[in-house]
Amino acid sequence: MFSGPSEDNKPMTLGPQIVGYLSAFLYLGARIPQIIQNHKRRSVEGLSLLFFLLSTLGNITYAGQILFYRSDSQYILLNLSWLLGSIGTILEDIFIFLQFYMYKDSKHEAVAGDA
User: Could you tell me the pTM of the whole model?
Assistant: First the structure.
């Protein structure tokens, strides 16, 4: 049976919201070490451009399905943590794409402390 939007208007519960924001925080934090390492090495050697392209496409479609399903403020607020994680990661991936462009001609040179 079809469940319409009126059945989705349940009150927000604190537990899932906390887990959602924790997930977004961890998801956003996952790209930071890679961005920093790329900057320190001035290289993206060993990274797969295809991985970041597909990851970005996945995050775009994920955020899009949330935004296009319903646009009322309660639904957006309920899913805000997932949107922040997805859209934030898209922004981080754009930064990594810029690093691919900036460091495309760089060869990785061993730096003391690189492991």
Answer: 0.77
